[in-house]
Amino acid sequence: MSTYPDLHLYINGEWRKTAHDLPVLNPATEEEIGRLPHAERRDLDDALDAAAEGFKVWSQTPPVTRANVLLKAAALMRERQEEIATAITAEHGKPLPQARLEVIRGCEFFEWDAGEATRTYGRVIPSAPGVRYIVHHQPIGTVAAFSPWNFPMSQPCRKVAGAIAAGCSIILKAAEETPAGALHIARALHDAGLPPGVLNLVFGTPAKISEHLIKQDQVRLVAFTGSTTVGQHLTILASQHMTPVLMELGGHAPVIVCEDTDVKAAAISGAVRKMRNAGQVCTSPTRFFVHESIFEEYTELFVRRAAATIVGNGVDPDVEMGPLANDRRIGALTDLVEDAKDKGAEVRTGGSKMGDVGYFFQPTVLANVPDHARVMQEEPFGPLAIINPVASLEDGIKQANAVPYGLAAYGFTNRADYVDRMIEGIEAGNVSINTLEASLPETPFGGVKSSGYGREGGTEGLQHYMITKNISHSMEIV
User: Fold this and answer.
1) Whole-prediction pTM
2) Fewest CB within 10 A of the end CB: N or C in the chain?
3) Are the beta carbons of 27 and 36 closer than 8 angstroms?
4) Domain enclosing residue 341, as ranges
5) 322-369, pLDDT tens digit by residue?
6) 189 and 129 inside one domain
7) Same domain, 415 and 317
8) CA 196, 199, 205, 208: dihedral to nearest 10 degrees?
C-alpha cells in the first residue's frame, strides 16, 4: 500500500512548504497521517501574480494544445489510480473501491473538457451586405476556485478541467481535511507540461483565503462547491467587485416513489445509494416520499438493507461505508436525530455514533417525520434517510418542493404521465427517473433556488469560464 503523500502548496510551477502547518487526520483511526502547510498572505500574493502571468501564456495557447495537456494529465492519473485512491481513503475514510471510482470520475472530467476545449464555437449573425456580426468566446481570466472535502479528487478535477480547457488560469483552494486529491491533480498537470502559473494550489484558513483572493482585480470568476451559507457569503464578497460566480451549493434531495414501481428494486437501490460516501454527497437521496399503498413494504425493505450495510475502515475489502469525514458531523447528525425523535419521528434503525475510535455513525432511517422537524429542512449530509408516506404524486411533488433547495431530485415510476408530471413539476436542476445518478461529465450539473447558480459539465460547462464578445465589422466607415 502506498504511503500518504508529502503535502505542499503549488505556486508558479513549484512546490512550497510554509512555516505554519496543521495535521491531517485519518477519520477511521483519528491518527495523524500528514502535515499540511497553510498559505500566508505572501503565498497568496505570489499565486495571484503567477496566475496573471500564466493567463497571458495559456489564453494564447491553441485549444488543441490545452486539450492534449489535459488528456496527458488524465492518463497519468489513471496510471496512478491506486496511489491516489489509497491516499483518499486514508484522509477521507471512504471505501477503497469508491475512492478508485472517484479517481476515474476525475479523469473523465479532464477527458470530456479536453474535447470541449476544441468546440467553444462562435457564430456569424446574418446581416446586411458589407457588415459582419460575429460572436466570439474568450477565456474570462484568473479563476479563484474552492472545492469541498467530500470528494477530494473529482470535485477539484471538475473546476480545474473547466478552467484550463477554457484557457483560464486558476488558483485552487482545496479542502484542508482532504488535500491529497488536489495535490495529485497538480502533480499530474505539472508532469503533463502545464506552464507555470496556470494552476496554483493553496491551503489554509478558508475565510482568510477567500476574503483576500476574491477582492483582487486579477480574479475574474469565483467558482465554489460547498454549503449554501458559505456560498451566499462568497457571492456577497464577489458582488462587491462585480465578479461573476459559479456556485454549486447544498441540496436536500427528494425521492418520489410511485405506487406502480418495482418496490423491492427501488428500496434496495435507495438504501445502497443513500449510504454511499456515508451520505456526504450534495445529491444524496434523503427525503423519500413513498405512496401510502406501498409505504410499509418499501420502508421494511429499505431498513433491512440499510441496517445490513457493512461499516468500517475503508481499507477493509468488505466495507461498504466508512466513517464521517470529521467529528463535527457526528454532533450535527445526533442533534438532528434527537430533534426528530422529540417531534414524534420513528427511528427504524440506527441513530447513534458507532464505537469509541473513528468518526463512525450508524446507517439511520427515520420514518413518519413531521414537517416541523429540523431534518425536513436541513440537509443532514450523512447516512440518514427520511421515509414518509404520501397520498398521491401531487402530494409527493409538493413535499419535494417544500425546501429552499433544488439541486437533485429522483423519481421511481413506470408511467409515462407520471414521468412527465415530475419533469415539469419538480423544482431541481437535475431530475433523474428510475436511477439515482444525477451527474455525469457529459451532462450539465447545477441547482436552482438556494442550491446555486450556473452549470458545470456538458456542453454548458465551459460557458462560465468564458466571456462572450460581440464583434461588429463594417467594410466601410459609417
Assistant:
1) 0.95
2) C
3) no
4) 253-440
5) 999 999 999 999 999 999 999 999 999 999 999 999 999 999 999 999
6) yes
7) yes
8) 80
